[in-house]
Amino acid sequence: MSKKSDTSQQSKFMGASTKQGYEIATKSQEIVRSLIDMKTKYFTTAERSIVERIVHSTADPEYAEITRISKNFVKESLMAIFQEDDILTDIKMVKVGINNYAGKVKCYISHENTLDLAKKREITRAAAAMELAALDGFEGIVVIGNSPTALWKIIELVKNGDMNVKSVIGVPVGFVGAAESKNALEQSSISYLLTRGPKGGTPVAVAAVNSLINLVSEGIR
Questions:
Q1: More confident position, 38 or 47
Q2: Fewer CB near the terminus (10 Å): N or C of the chain?
């Protein structure tokens, strides 16, 4: 790879657009790779790229150890993005963080019917939002960065045949239900990227999906 091409890849990895930005990107990428090199030796090139971005976004090398990626996750996700399938997020913050995507990014958390459904069904708004997405015929990639109940609901909807998802990025954060919901995702039939334990959140979810979008823009399918 030429120096110019390498710089281009660094800018996509770190979002750099100036000479100083490129220099910072280069140093940051070197540091990240040195910290997680041995921890990611069993990942494919694409999987490693995703994990590198997560570690960079969180400044936490532990994500290289707790991130789990199912066998078909990258293939299914890249194809969905290439086809500009919809992306569904649990909260607006995750939606806002997704960059340079030609398809639609949807979030039903503030939909006018979400609160009514949540009260009627006695579930969280986040879970109700997933049900509304299913009723709306959603198909594509689901990105859960915060709500364990949303992830539980997605697993339930898929299991019951009420939603067809291509893959799920399931990285809800917290000490109540987060680890358990991710364990359930890992045991499901869904192609997934998840983080074990309580760690996760918006930065992790956004980093994972933006990394996939960048891979497609680089011509990787």
A1: 47
A2: N
Three-state secondary-structure class, residue 204: helix
Kindly give the residue spans of alpha helices, DSSP state H, lying in 102-190: 114-121, 125-135, 148-159, 178-186
Does 64 have pLDDT greater than 80?
yes
**Domain architecture of the chain: domains with CATH:** 66-217 (3.40.50.10230)
CA distance 121 to 39: 43
Instruction: Report which DSSP code applies to 202.
Output: H
| pTM to 2 decimal places | 0.89
What does the pLDDT average to over 169-180? Answer: 98
CA torsion sign, 210 to 47 to 198 to 191?
A: positive
Active site residues: 56
Which residues have C-beta within 8 Å of that of residue 122, sequence separation ≥ 6? none
218 to each of 166, 186, 211, how far by Cα in Å? Answer: 21, 29, 11
How far is residue 32's CA from residue 49's CA, in Å, rounded to a whole number? 11
